[in-house]
Amino acid sequence: MGKYEVPPLNYRYDALEPYIDAKTMEIHHAKHHQIYANGLNEALENINALTHKNYITSILSDLTTVPEPVRNAINFHGGGFDNHRLFWESMTPNGGGEPGGKLADEIKIYFGNFKELKETFSQTSLSIQGSGWGWLVYNQTYSRLEIKAMSDQTSPWTLRLIPILGLDVWEHAYYLKYQNRRADYIEAWWNVVNWAEIEERFLRVTT
Ligand SMILES: [Fe+2]
Fold first, then answer.
1. Which of 13, 29, 85, 153 is the most buried (most CB within 10 A)?
2. Where exactly are the structural domains of the chain?
3. Per-residue model confidence (pLDDT) at position 207
4. How far, in Å, CA of 74 to CA of 175, rounded?
5. Which residues surround ligand 1, an ion (CB under 5 A)?
6. What is the topology classification, in CATH, of domain 101-206?
7. Cα 103 to ligand 1 centroid, rounded to whole Å
């Protein structure tokens, strides 16, 4: 794969205002994501694995094969790298609303309706103690959607669950604008969800 690099955003830092402020987006993307990229590259370098041919999620899916001295670092920084990559793509200035297509059909089956999914996802994300992510994932074993809380930067891939939609509830994602009001941040975030991208992501893993 070579060295991992933080991908550019395809919208401006202020594009998600007023829901997510420009300063938070800038620090989050340019500083925090960079730390995960650097940490991942360093950990891979330490085990001479920078030339590993598959993307990091293949390593995260089988962490037991990672040499013990760098396993935690790969889990943390590798998860952080991919989680944030997905996060940027999951948002758009023209976001919000509800998903359609096959994803909407599946949501009806497993959650009853979109409102129920939104409430369960929000509650799960709100209840995470300390830092972590709320996730809508696809469970390949049971061919179904699930909602999952993951702590710190641990990727759903470590449980072999495929990430569909993730919400970063680390304080670095909201503290400048929302301080301790994580619930307000979560409620605002639904207005920038890029459902077209999420629907595509879902189709890619289920077809
Ligand atoms: Fe983050």
1. 153
2. 22-89, 101-206
3. 83
4. 26
5. 168, 170, 173
6. minor pseudopilin epsh fold (3.55.40)
7. 26
